[in-house]
Amino acid sequence: MKEKEILETATREFTELTGIPARILHKPLDNKVKDKYIFLELKFLNRRKDFRVELKNELREQQIPGLLKQVDKQNRDWLLICQYIPAPLKGELKKLGINYLEAAGNCLIRYDDVFFYINDRPVTPQRTPVEGKLWKQAGLRFLFGILVEPGLLNQPYRRMAEITGVALGNIGAFLEELKEEGFLKEGVKENKPFFFLENIPQLQNKWIELYNTVLKPKLKRGTFRFLDPALQKNWEALPDQDFYWGAEPAGAKLTGFLRPEIFTIYTNQPTTTIMRQLKLVPDNKGNLLLMDKFWHEELDYKQGLVPPLLAYAELATSLDSRNRETAERLKKKHLEK
Predict the structure, then answer these.
(1) Which residues contact residue 187 at a Cβ distance below 8 angstroms, ignoring those fewer than 6 apart?
(2) CB–CB of 53/29 below 8 Å?
(3) Closest Cα partner for 130 from 183, 171, 90?
(4) pLDDT higher than threshold 50 for residue 130
(5) I want to staple 327 with a disulfide (CB 3.0 to 4.6 A). Which of 18, 21, 190, 315 is the partner?
(6) For the whole prediction, is pTM greater than 0.85?
(7) Burial (Cβ within 10 Å: 0-12, 13-18, ≥19) of residue 329
């Protein structure tokens, strides 16, 4: 079920079950923000309440840290709408005070003295998180490229394919899906057609969620530990010509706020080369993750560091509150324009 269908189905079911008029709105957060967000307007007891909507297909446990970061202290103003939410996670959402609504009509919505709770509607889990090629491995590589370098959208298809590392034949389909989902618009610049991204924060959030669940597991080579504790302590002095620090080390270098405890490295070099260079040994309980580098060198940010979007994606979905705080600092400094 696509997100638009989930939204429309959930809204219709809620109204039919409760008799409460519900209406989908698309509007900016305020006058300073041009991007439009989805809101659900509910009218009850001679009052109106607009809930900002976060749309997902099937909620997973690893998505909750990112959800908490987005909801922050305004959880009563948010509404999570999903095709399916596993029963244990509904209990977690309830404890966290996060409102939710399933496509079948099951919900927990609280605001002031208003309370809606429905939990007896049959639900069929939707095991495919998002439909379409765009949200699979190749599509996520493509999205990473255009999020890091939006100018690629106005390059020839062959160039887009080269830099994003996907098959040339997929480019047109990816662009069409972006248009259908409201993330790509066509305008005119210097009397020529010009493509630009729209609703970038939502696109970033969607990429982050699926990077961690779909692409990242395929990139992992293994877990290691430093044979020499002094090398871990002085990690910033290690030569990084052959690899890129991600996650906590990247957050530390980009913000100066964090002291890494878990180390993440992305590389194209053979595993044995990195092991020799950093004196690493395999250890299933080790604190160093070795990953395949998946982006083109033209998307490099700085020598030895992953692009800020990737570091943010890893830190923002961490269960560690210090990592999420670092992610927010990184976002304000490097991603918000």
Answers:
(1) 193, 194, 195, 196
(2) no
(3) 183
(4) no
(5) 315
(6) no
(7) middle
**H, E, C per residue of the chain:** CCHHHHHHHHHHHHHHHHCCCEEEEEEECCCCCCCEEEEEEEEECCEEEEEEEEEEEECCHHHHHHHHHHHCCCHHHEEEEEEECCHHHHHHHHHHCCCEEECCCCEEEEECCEEEEECCCCCCCCCCCCCCHHHCHHHHHHHHHHHHCHHHHHCCHHHHHHHHCCCHHHHHHHHHHHHHCCCEEEEEECCEEEEEECCHHHHHHHHHHHHHHHHHHHHEEEEEEECCHHHHHCHHHCCCCCCEEEHHHHHHHHHCCCCCCCEEEEECCCHHHHHHHHCEEECCCCCEEEEECCCCHHHCCECCECCHHHHHHHHHCCCCHHHHHHHHHHHHHHHCC
Residue 125 has a pLDDT of: 52
- φ, ψ of residue 225 to 5 degrees: the values are -140, 155
Closest C-alpha to 236, from 224, 251, 254, 249: 249
Q: Sort 147 into a burial class: Cβ within 10 Å, 0-12 / 13-18 / 19+.
A: buried
- Contact by Cβ (8 Å): 119, 128: no
Residues 133 and 207 sit within 8 Å (Cβ to Cβ) = no
| pLDDT over threshold 70, residue 129 | no
Per the structure block, which two tokens stand in for 4?
A: 């638009």
pLDDT digit string (tens) for 65-78? 777 766 664 555 88
With beta carbons less than 8 A apart as the criterion, state whether 40 and 67 touch. Answer: no
Give the tokens for residue 326: 């670092």
Rg of the chain over Cα atoms, rounded to whole angstroms, equals 22
CA angle 182/186/190 to nearest 5° reads 155
